[in-house]
């Protein structure tokens, strides 16, 4: 019997294939059934040291729909961090106010540090350019719903693969499911070497290419990512790659694509994906964003031990 009670959610690498499938199964139940009240009396601390819309609000909605309460912040300027308080001291204090912590931070490793510092479960809501495991569960759930399966699919990752933590986590997760992966990016934004080495160890089939046209006829899923201006040390380096890839209905019409191709995007989008795609059969990214609520309901309920 699988139990995730009191488990920290820091990296998708910490999950077995069976645990991933378990979360997807529970997510489906959460979407179909009213579970209001099962987290009554529980408090979630939403600690966002970095901007967020979908992740922060979907965690808040999930907790409240299950009957729990939410405290926290989304503005670093309102915290004692500006006075010099360390992350470790902050979370050790906040631990006494809640039952579970969800943390987004601009530094890689911040979630692991937090989990090592407190005695309640910690969920990584994105740490620097490293990983974003709960988004990965949302992505997998969306793929499963839109394609009917997650085994043996061909997945294209497009855009910023160097700093794109959602792409990093999803690639690791798909290694469990016999996926063929195509990493589509300019040389300066390639998938980091350590991630590729991990995929090689897992005997995952992958290929690095510069253009979507090279592989469009092979793809079941195209996972589009934003080129993240905030991750670049120098603005001039961002300007070199800004707008390098831009998907639109007309672009997709010109490509040779497989029937049933679906486009995912963790959002927000800037100029890499035109609104003309929104009404096409390819687009599932808004459904993807909405799936954040049942998936995070499943994660919260499982980690807090009310579903086993």
From TrEMBL:
It comes from the Bacteria. Keywords: Pyrimidine biosynthesis, Transferase. Residues 7-144 form the Aspartate/ornithine carbamoyltransferase carbamoyl-P binding domain. Residues 152-302 form the Aspartate/ornithine carbamoyltransferase Asp/Orn-binding domain. GO terms for biological process: 'de novo' pyrimidine nucleobase biosynthetic process; 'de novo' UMP biosynthetic process; amino acid metabolic process. L-aspartate binds at residues 83, 165, 226. Pathway: Pyrimidine metabolism; UMP biosynthesis via de novo pathway; (S)-dihydroorotate from bicarbonate: step 2/3. It catalyses: carbamoyl phosphate + L-aspartate = N-carbamoyl-L-aspartate + phosphate + H(+). The keyword Transferase applies. Its EC number is 2.1.3.2. Carbamoyl phosphate binds at residues 54-55, 104, 132, 135, 267-268. Belongs to the aspartate/ornithine carbamoyltransferase superfamily. ATCase family. Heterododecamer (2C3:3R2) of six catalytic PyrB chains organized as two trimers (C3), and six regulatory PyrI chains organized as three dimers (R2). PANTHER family: ASPARTATE CARBAMOYLTRANSFERASE, ORNITHINE CARBAMOYLTRANSFERASE, MITOCHONDRIAL. Catalyzes the condensation of carbamoyl phosphate and aspartate to form carbamoyl aspartate and inorganic phosphate, the committed step in the de novo pyrimidine nucleotide biosynthesis pathway. This is Aspartate carbamoyltransferase. It comes from Candidatus Scalindua japonica. The gene is pyrB.
